[in-house]
UniProtKB/TrEMBL annotation:
Any coiled-coil regions, as ranges: 445-488
Gene Ontology biological process terms in this record: DNA replication initiation
Descriptive protein name: Nucleolar complex protein 3 homolog
Keyword Nucleus appears in the UniProt entry: yes
Keywords, sorted A to Z: Coiled coil, Nucleus
Top-level taxon of the source organism: Eukaryota
Residue ranges constituting the CCAAT-binding factor domain according to the UniProt record: 550-703
Annotated region described as Disordered, given as residue ranges: 163-186
Species assigned in the record: Hypotaenidia okinawae
Keyword rRNA-binding among UniProt keywords: no
Classification via InterPro entries: ARM-type_fold (IPR016024), CCAAT-binding_factor (IPR005612), Noc3_N (IPR011501), Nucleolar_cplx-assoc_3 (IPR016903)
Amino acid sequence: MKPRKNTKRVPSFRKLLRTSKIKLDNKLKNKQYRQQSAAKKYRKEQKKLREAVRDAVLRKPFPLEECKKKQVAEKWEEEDALPLDMMDEDDLKLMKDLAQKASFLTRDLSSDEPVHIRKRKHEDVIDKYEKVPRRMQTEPEKELIHLLPIKDKGGIIPQTMEKPVTSDAQDDEEDTEEMEEAEDFNEEPVPIVTPEEMAAQRRQKLQERKMHIAALASAILSEPDNNIKKLKELRAMLMEQDPNVAVIVRKLVMVSLMEIFKDIVPSYKIRPLTEAEKATKVKKETQKLREFEEGLVSQYKFYLENLEQTIKDWKQRKVKKSNVISLKAYKGLAEIAVKCLCELLVALPHFNFHNNIIVLIVPLMNDASKMISQLCIEAVKKLFKQDKLGYASLGVVKVISGLVKGRNYNVRPEVLKVFLHLRIKEVELQKDSEDIAPKKKFMTYKEKRKNLSRMQRKWRKAEEKLERELLEAEASESKEKKLKLHTETLNIVFVTYFRILKKAQKSPLLPAVLEGLAKFAHLINVEFFDDLLIVLHSLITSGGLSYRESLHCVLSAFHILSGQGDVLNIDPMKFYTHLYRTLFSLHAGGTNDDIGIVLQCLDVMFARRRKQVSQQRALAFLKRLSTLALHVLPNSSVGILATNRVFMQTFPKMDLLLDNDSQGSGVYLPELDEPEHCNAQNTALWELHLLQRHYHPTVQKFAAHLTVGAPTEGSGALSLDLSQRPAAELFEAYSIRGMTFNPPVASVTPRRKDTFSKTDSFIDEELNKQLQQHISKTVVHKCLDFAKHLKESSLL
């Protein structure tokens, strides 16, 4: 009879290879879990055994003699105990027999429990100890490691290797020993340190950290390729745990890393390698460069994440669990982190993660802390000014537009005012000039064939090819690409402006919007001019704007009309009337600062549109500006008189106001708000005579110059310093904001009182009398002139 074959087949090699790796890992994890559970159960049993032995040792019976003495002493102390002479002989004999037994002596006679109850308890402890199964000390369990199988004639033989597993019991014993050592160490007395010693220790630690930071930084800067790993060591110091020096060390490391990255970062953006590039073999130098770039990008990313986390912790008022740095100190760390981010935003606009820095910086422009907000705003302004290509500017403008819309237009006006520093206007003007300039022309084939020989044509062809290559090399960025970026940036800016004009007309952002429209008005599409002018006029007539905002509306309207708006047939008479009516709102108080905007408006309204302005309008503004010069500060008077000088030199027949004779019918009506119908040609500039007696010498010079007709040559002409400077620049140059007088006043040494004589006092009295008489006469004359004027107006 043939033996039965084994029906269980040995798994094939392919089947073993097809076995899921996850399944094998799960089997290994289950096996390790079972081993740990068995070891844990064994440790619990050993612990119970030790406790049982400890209880058995503590509960051993007292010696017989000691129990006997104790029992006798307690017996005699009882008040109800009977003396021996009062007991019978049978009782005494019974007591003596019982005294020979240990259970009688060790028993508490005052208790009512049975005699053998304690014996049973003691026996239970011993029985439990005896019932615990004895276990031999086995060898540590082995973990099997599966190896590649072996195939022979009989089939496939699996191969395994044992790996010893360290028992957890040994680890527990080592942990207990370490705990005991730590307790012994903690029991040592802590030495008392004086404040002077603590300060000295802190200085020493801080000096050590500074030297370590300097050593790492110098090593990285000297050889960045070889020491790129030291960046990680330096960055690890951002987690300084010593509470005495943690704040200063972290600040120093932040600034040091920022300066290091500014120095070692290349002038190009590092992109990640593809799988094909990683698989290809390259030279050692190329591989070294790749490792350097990869390490630099990763450490730069981790550094930016650390800065971001520091700012977030401060914003959320969150302190780490270690409590190394207090919440108050986090503000200083956050300020340093913001400074580092601002420096990197300006210094590395081409490198990786620049858009991430923009997303961090732009919301901080609207931060409640004025210092942090100002830092971020100044950084964005610098970025706009130095950005020639337009990539970084486009990214910042996108984020600002989203911030304004997301906050429902509830942001600081300074956030929108950064748009005024965009370089779009200058680049567009440069492009126009390049388009207008004649381009270099190359000779055609016919011209070469007619004028040049064969050899000359060959040389000329090579020269033209070289010139074309040079022209292409100079143009690093194509003009079309740059124009496209600037157009997209400007579209986002105008979308933001128009949203505010449409949905948030009472927002404090309106002045910034009007300033921006005035700056970029020449780039707005002509199709929007009519609608935009209607919106600006409706804002002025609504009465909800401040005086400064209404001036910005007027300035924006005339900037629009002075650019591409010249081709439109639009009469902005309503804006002239509004400015003429509100000029007397300016005075020597708070509105004196608005005169700078008024001077810009007058320059755009008259100097650049001289052909569209009538003589009556110019005469009316000249008269009202001369009257206004009497009521403002000296720097404002200088700016207004400089504007009057432009009026006299630009428009003919302005010298009519220097003559007392009237030039037509009617009387001048100063209270009328229509410049075309106030009959300004029938008045005179009597204000210039008063301004010649002004206390400011520059105002006197301008008044005297205008009195003689504002000549460009001769004795009445101004100096080059005053004649060649615009009115707005003169207004800023003679400003008295810093409590300074320009030109400076010469110091006069006062005379002592004892040097005065009687003649001096007599002369002073006579001078005072004459001055009072002169003032009274002047007042009388002015009153008479005013009465005459009222009489003439009443007759009309």
